[in-house]
Amino acid sequence: MGNNLIYKLTYLWRLFGTAVSFTAFGVGGFLLWVLVFPLLSVLPGSRRERIKRGQHVVHYSFYAFIGLMHRIGIMTYEIVGLEKLNRPGQLILANHPTLVDIVFLISRVREASCIVKASLWRNPAMRGPILNAGYISNGDPEQMIEECVDWLRAGGSMIIFPEGTRSVPGKPYRFQRGAAAIALQAGKIVTPVTLSCYPSTLTKAEPWYSIPYRRRFHLAMHVGDDIDLEPFQQLEPKSIAVRRLNRFLQDYFTEQREIYQNHGK
Description:
It is built from eight helices and seven strands, in the order H-H-E-E-H-E-H-E-H-E-H-E-E-H-H. The chain starts with a helix and ends in a 6-residue tail after the last helix. The protein has a seven-stranded mixed beta sheet with strand order 1-7-6-2-5-3-4, with helices on both faces. It is of the alpha/beta class.
């Protein structure tokens, strides 16, 4: 009876904390849009300098959000290999098990662009960060690839989820070819990042309030070694190279998921 009561009380606290956290995220994003970014826009500098300032603001905001979730007892986390990130012209490819993956990654990468769904441009909580941090819409796939390649070649960093959406627990990965095409066209650093979440929560099939009953969720980030693109760049035609790299990425993340499937339990 005593243990059940403790589990119930801690669950209710974590549920309340989750609601507070996501409310803070939405309110914070709106305030950034209407208060902070307009002030930044009047500062002198080129478009690239303005985007870098915007990315810094988003980075520190997301860092604070992850810190909030950790401190009020919703989640724990660990990061292995962070020193491999934050390099100019780096394409970071990651799997996508939870809703907060992009927030977690950007909270650790100071200057990074990413691809966002076209529908999010109308979201008041996200519109400010999207516009001012130079994020790229997926509305036009060809334009999306071109903009990503240009950004990487100019020395910018990018975070991309090759799946294009959150994973479905228990289902095999189905990667889209856009990430592989961007990697080969840009020809820059490609670094894989494996994300694991235990117990599983905030997946594509779950609402935000469907949190683990007995414990906080644990989010782990393992940064892998850079991927050698040369064997794929030598393949002709380019469509074959993209398919081979896409298959390599899919197999890599499938293997990594099996390695870390019990991590954090």
